[in-house]
Amino acid sequence: MIYDTAIIGTGPAGLSAALNLKIHQKKFIWLGSKALSDKISKAEKISNYPGLEDISGQEFSRRLSRQARDMGLEITEQMVNSIVSMGDYYALLAGNEFFQAKSIILATGVINKTALPGEERLLGKGVSYCATCDGPLYKGKTVAVICNASRFEHEVEYLSEIAGKVYYIPTYKAAVERENIEKVADRVVEIVGEEKAEGIRLSGGEVINVDGVFCLRNSVALSALLPKLTAENGHIMVDRKMATNLPGIFAAGDCTGRPYQYAKAVGEGNVAAHSVIEYLAEKRSDT
Amino acid sequence: MIYDTAIIGTGPAGLSAALNLKIHQKKFIWLGSKALSDKISKAEKISNYPGLEDISGQEFSRRLSRQARDMGLEITEQMVNSIVSMGDYYALLAGNEFFQAKSIILATGVINKTALPGEERLLGKGVSYCATCDGPLYKGKTVAVICNASRFEHEVEYLSEIAGKVYYIPTYKAAVERENIEKVADRVVEIVGEEKAEGIRLSGGEVINVDGVFCLRNSVALSALLPKLTAENGHIMVDRKMATNLPGIFAAGDCTGRPYQYAKAVGEGNVAAHSVIEYLAEKRSDT
Q1: ipTM of the complex
Q2: Which end of chain A, N or C, is less surrounded by CB atoms within 10 Å?
Q3: Which pLDDT band holds residue B23 (cuts at 50, 70, 90)?
Q4: Using one digit for the tens of pLDDT, what is the confidence trace for B126-162?
């Protein structure tokens, strides 16, 4: 089965796109956190969203969740690890599941993370974004896990059950403790290695030698996911139709640039969905 | 007093811009109908506006009105008849009031009306958009009034008190009846005249000779208001910042093109407001 589109991201832009695609009865997969946007629930008060006066972030988030549920929208809680163009459609690896889609809407939010030096070059060569997928390759070996959210802790635990030794570099107050897990307080500044990942360099300069490096982050660096995507200052370049430079790939919300605002995000999600609908119609008439 | 900006239009795009400019404490004038958007209140059910599930148009409209009121936003219920660039700022004639603004946000909605042949050429030469302003010039004379909404009926009555004879061409089911008002059922296809307006041509070919022509429409044709504005297929061309080709003039909502959607409109209004804020900051640092 090839989906009409895959929406990546469950913030307001992703939701807005999903609502419209649902109404237009498109077949799509919606990938991201079931909790929708962390950022929203943490917002104290939203004063400039038309139609919802002085609403708290939590209440806004509840409304969006309820609306998604009532509209029958389903979220697949997997992180996208890889996107490959298959000519006429795209193949996505999300968690350890594989999806195919004719088009993609990137609604990934502000892209805080840019890839580490060495990360893109060594991706698939000892660098992995998915413990479930690639963990088994490191039986009894030494791995480093760079992790930026507690939701990946079960993956860290999973790796500790396979690997002989895990260097654990969380960027938040982490809770995982195991005998073969060594927490590293220092920051990772580089993934080193020639043909394959051989170690991580810490901000102090020290290199820890490892057999593999897992980067478990809320958002994969888009530059690693789609190296040919045109971006500027960390923002995906789009036109007025929210089309990126890659055919069938659209983007919406904070990932396309400032202002980082809910109203902008829902507007762009709406436009991206309509552009996907147009794109699919054109594709159909081509064949 | 020169306003920071003038927002033209009180639909969702205009409201979204106004909310943001208010929060940023900009001085602005907001021109349009106090009833906000007619189109919204007539919408039966809105299913794709994030945060407001299956809301009726009337309820959405009520919410927007309440939000505008609670945020202290004031609407000046005047139609803009003319915009003139004064180099560093713009002069606007709205109704019979005169305003000055450093920037403008056009949020005028779908532009159904394009100007009639002859209308732009003869504007100010017998063609007028404002009965209150130009009515007195036609004492005892014959005028034609092309009118597309009942809210202008008092202006038609006003003209009938001044003029000797009024040809009244409403595009809706009109109620005005006066002894010197002759209702014309046919459609106007052209305003004729060389140096000044001399008559109106009806779709049947017949020409009615008049001294002046009043076009009272919910929205003035933007091509007449801002002849140098770049438009395509009746849509104002904007970039990702909602900037038009004219310095300091931004546009948002349905007037910039499809999809004609509330989410898009509020998103674009938000972006336009932020672009105005940036524009004003740059202007200030220039001087």
Answers
A1: 0.76
A2: C
A3: very high
A4: 998 878 778 889 999 999 999 987 878 888 999 999 9
Identify from A65, A266, A275, A279 which residue to disrupt to test chain B contact, counting B C-beta atoms within 10 A and taking the largest count: A266
Q: Do B16 and A238 touch (CB under 8 A)?
A: no
**Closest residue of B to A239, CA-based?**
B240
CATH of the domain at A142: 3.50.50.60
Looking at A183, A216, A249, the residue that finishes a domain is A216
pLDDT score for A114 = 65
Q: What six digits make up the tokens of B151?
A: 């809210």
Neighboring chain A residues of B267 at a CB cutoff of 8 Å: 261, 263-268, 270-271
A56 in the same domain as A37:
yes
pLDDT at B107 over 70: yes
- Checking if the pLDDT of B287 tops 70, the result is no
Total structural domains in chain A? 2
* β-strand partners of B8: B31, B106
N-to-C CA span, chain B: 18
Ranges assigned E (strand) in chain B: 5-8, 28-31, 80-85, 90-94, 97-101, 104-106, 127-128, 142-147, 165-170, 181-183, 188-192, 199-202, 207-209, 212-216, 231-232, 235-236, 249-251
Same domain, A129 and A181: yes
Q: Which amino acid appears at position B88 of this protein?
A: D
Give how far A85 is from chain B: nearest CA, Å.
27
Is A97 in the same domain as A175? no
Domain that residue A28 falls in? 3-112+220-286
Q: What is the mean pLDDT of residues B75-103?
A: 91
Least confident of A147-151, B190-194, B226-230: A147-151
Say if residue B2's pLDDT is above 90.
yes
If asked whether residues B167 and B249 sit together in one domain, one would say no
Verify that B124 and B108 share a domain, yes or no: no
CA distance B121 to chain A (A): 32
Question: Looking at CA atoms only, how far is residue A124 from chain B in angstroms?
Answer: 36
Question: Residue A66: CB partners within 8 Å, gap ≥ 6?
Answer: B53
Q: Is B197 found in the same domain as B159?
A: yes
Average pLDDT of every residue of chain B = 91
Contacts of B63 in chain A (CB under 8 A): 51-53
Q: What is the CA radius of gyration of chain A?
A: 20
Q: Same domain, yes or no, for B145 and B270?
A: no
Four-point Cα dihedral B65, B66, B69, B70, nearest 10: -150
Picking from A190, A216, A242, the residue at the C-terminal end of a domain is A216
Entry field: residues in chain A: 287
Which residue numbers in chain A have pLDDT < 50?
A: none
In this structure, are A233 and A107 located in the same domain?
A: yes
